[in-house]
Each structure stands twice: as structure tokens, then as C-alpha cells.
Amino acid sequence: MSDRSILLTNDDGIESVGFRALYDALSEFADVTAVAPANDQSAVGRKMSTDAVVVEHEMGYALEGTPADCTVAGLEALCPDVDMVVSGINKGANIGAYVLGRSGTVSAAVEAAFFDVPAIALSLYVPGDGETPWHEQATDPRDYRNASQAASYFVKHAIGAGVFEQCDYLNVNAPMYDRDAGPADMKVTKPSEMYDMTAEYENGSVRLHDRVWERMRDGDIPDPEGTDRRAVIDGYVSVSPLTAPHTTKRHEALDALAETYME
Fold this sequence. Notes:
Keywords: Cytoplasm, Hydrolase, Metal-binding, Nucleotide-binding. The protein is α/β, with parallel strands linked by helices. The protein has one domain: 3-Layer(aba) Sandwich (Stationary-phase Survival Protein Sure Homolog, Chain: A), CATH 3.40.1210. It has helices at about 15-25, 65-80, 95-100, 105-115, 145-155, 210-220, 230-235, 250-260; strands at about 5-10, 30-35, 55, 60-65, 85-90, 120-125, 170-175, 185-190, 195-200, 205-210, 235-240. Strands 3-4-2-1-5-6-7-11-8 form a 9-stranded mixed sheet, sandwiched between helices. A two-stranded antiparallel sheet has the order 9-10. A hairpin with a 2-residue loop joins strand 9 and strand 10. Helix 1 (about 15-25) runs parallel beside helix 5 (about 145-155) and helix 2 runs parallel beside helix 4 (about 105-115). The longest helix has 13 residues, at about 145-155. The N and C termini lie far apart (about 65 Å).
């Protein structure tokens, strides 16, 4: 009898290589129920549906919906008694503070936090340099070994160690597994604050471009030690302990404005 029960979801879709790699790794020691999108739902953030068709799957359930849908549907109806939500493994890193709200992978973990259920989001950094485009890489489940190993470690130990008493979810990014170098070591990080989005207006349309990824390919990364992007570029598994609800603090200037609002 397993001592851990897991709701497993993602945003690449239930048939993706990274999802199967993670399902197989966690199933070795935990009771895993898949509640994942039937199709690719990348970069949808916390988009929600009002209705989502559910189809039974050999690993659990496939939803015609978003990652956030899957978390809510799983925790409310399909497998409500799980110990943890695990989301991933996404093909492509989810690093940097500006990415967190866009990522379906991360958003599934954020949604779990509002149920007070510990969660882990896992993504794979796939380099864009070399002759093979990044989207044609990471086709072998073994490429995801660093991420699945980190997932297994945290599922086994994080709750007992009290990790989720100080954070709501973990955002984990891992480099592709290097068969020559062996498993990657781990660093605790914070999301990078580097932001380099551009927009160009021409002929009635605007072209939006995220320059961070090409800067990563060129090695032009100003991120300091301790950030998620720096750790992954240097070959480490990055784990950022994060909180989900928006935080606030006492704001004297706003207090003063509010007091004079009706004057």
C-alpha cells in the first residue's frame, strides 16, 4: 500500500513524453492518478472553463480543459483525497518571475495552493543552441531523468521535512539528463527578475518578442547566483519555494490617500 497519493497533471497534454516519464517514475512508489489536458494547453496560465469533458484514460482521466481545470476537477471530484498535486514535466523551462503567471504547468500548482494541498511544478530546460531546434529535442523519457528524480525526492521527503509549512508550492526546473555527466545537483533559488519583452508595430499589427530565450542561447545572462535561470544554465536543478496568494504589506502612502478620499 503506497503512503503517498498524487494528482498528476501538466499543460503539454496527457500523451506528452515528459508526462509519461513522470507518471512512471512516481508510480514506482506512489498511488498516481492522472488528471491532465487531453491536448496541449501550453501558456494558458490559470485560464478556467465552466465545463470540461472527461474521458477515462489508462493513467486516470483526460480533460478537454486547462491545467487549472484539471487541478480543480481532480481535487473536487475525481481524486479529492490526494496528498499532493504534481504538474509536469513541461518540455521547456518555466523560469523567471515574469513567466510564472503565463505557465499552465505552474498555474496547476498555484491552483492547488488554494485547496491547501502541497504542489510541485516541474519543467525541463531544453537548450536552443546547436543544430537541432529545441522543440525537436527531449523526445526520449530518459532526457527527463533529472526532473523526475527531483520530483520523486520531493514527493517522498518534502512534506515530512516541513517544506510546505513555509511555502505553498515548489517550482522546479531541471536541465536535460546528460548520460556522460550523470545526475545534476540541486540549488534552492528565487525567480529571476530579468525581463526583456519587446514589441514592434508595423502595418496594423504588433509583433511581440521575448528576447530572454535568444539571450540564453547566446550566453548573455546577467542573472546573479541564487536565481533560477542562473542555476539551470549552470547545469543545476533549480527549486524555488513560492507562495500562491498575492501578498501585500502596510502602505502608508495609500492609507493617506484612502483617508482623504471623500474630502
